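Homework help board

Subject: predicted structure for assignment chain

Our instructor gave us this sequence and asked us to write out the predicted structure in C-alpha cell form, then describe one feature. I got the C-alpha cells but I'm not sure how to describe them. Can anyone check?
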Amino acid sequence: MREREREREREKEKEKINTLYKSVLEKLVTKREEAGLTQYDISTALGLSESGYFKVEKGKTKLDLERLFTILLKLEISPEEFFKGIG
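My C-alpha cell output:
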C-alpha cells in the first residue's frame, strides 16, 4: 500500500515537472519571437543545426542549463526575468 502511494506521488511530481518544462519552452519561443530572432539565429549561437534547435523548442531534445543560459544571453534576458511568472 505505501509503495502505491509513493508511486502516485512520483507520478504527480513528474507531471508537475513536465508542465513546468513545457512552460519554459513556450516562454523561450515567445521571447525569441518578441526579440525578432529566428530559430536559425539561436541555433547558430548554440552551435546546433536549425533542425537541432527546433527539436529543443519542441521538447524532443532536452534543454540543459548551458544551452538555456546561452539562449538567455542571446535574448538579452536575465534568468531572474525569464523565470518570473513560471511555476
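Reply (TA_rk): Your C-alpha cells look well-formed. For the description, you could write something like this. The first helix runs from residue 2 to 34. That's the kind of observation they're looking for.
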